[in-house]
């Protein structure tokens, strides 16, 4: 298999570009491209295996289409709660859902989910929590455990805004896949 720079495609995702390549029929081919990109282009690379989805001929009615969930229900996918932090009367945490329908980004030797805005809201709500807001993110940015949290991508915050821990706000589409952090009152 011949691998060149022209095999790599950049996809615009909000304010960032992601390098995409594939699909490949063989895992070995995907790994070869990953090694090339890592060695010659000097970028961090991971290989994600996707499932082949076959289109069915059955049609969904419009009411069934509008009832689709942004994330699978709690009964089918139980998240791992990471980086739980308590400040005042609020608990902050990052849920990590595992399964084929979730996007991941590898940072700080861990895999972190990336969500669209609606998926982020649904993920927090499925855990009786809400997305953090601007003030929450500012409080968290001063916390001693900040260095253990993913920070390469910005976070969704309440209202569909996008911020990082430095307080910088980004413009983004609601379909951008970014990090999330949930907040929950301690009395729940």
Overview of this protein structure:
With 188 residues, the protein is α+β, with helices and mostly antiparallel strands. It has 2 domains: 5-40, no CATH class; 80-185, Mannose-Binding Protein A, subunit A (Mannose-Binding Protein A, Chain A). Helices cover 19% and strands 26% of the residues. The chain is built from 4 helices and 11 strands. It has helices at 27-40, 62-66, 117-125, 134-141; strands at residues 9-13, 16-20, 80-87, 90-96, 103-107, 110-114, 130-131, 155-157, 161-163, 169-170, 182-185. The chain has a 4-stranded antiparallel beta sheet with strand order 3-4-11-7, with helices on both faces. A hairpin with a 3-residue loop joins β8 (155-157) and β9 (161-163). The longest helix has 14 residues, at 27-40. The N and C termini lie far apart (55 Å). Residues 1-8 and 55-69 have low confidence and may be disordered. It comes from Vibrio chagasii. This is SPOR domain-containing protein.
What's the topology here?
Elements: E1 9-13, E2 16-20, H1 27-40, H2 62-66, E3 80-87, E4 90-96, E5 103-107, E6 110-114, H3 117-125, E7 130-131, H4 134-141, E8 155-157, E9 161-163, E10 169-170, E11 182-185
Antiparallel strand pairs: 1-2, 3-4, 4-11, 5-6, 7-11, 8-9, 9-10
Helix content: 10-25%
DSSP strand count: 11
CATH topology of the largest domain: Mannose-Binding Protein A, Chain A
Structural class: alpha+beta
Low-confidence stretches: 1-8, 55-69
* CATH architecture term of the largest domain: Roll
CATH class (first level) name of the largest domain: Alpha Beta
CATH homologous superfamily grouping of the largest domain: Mannose-Binding Protein A, subunit A
- As for the number of domains, it is 2
Gap from first CA to last CA: 55 Å
| Largest sheet features | 4 strands, antiparallel
Number of helices: 4
Query: Order of SSEs, N→C?
Result: EEHHEEEEHEHEEEE
Radius of gyration: 19 Å
Query: Can you give the mean pLDDT?
Result: 75
Our estimate of the beta-strand percent is 25-35%
General shape: elongated
Strands in their spatial order, largest beta sheet = 3-4-11-7
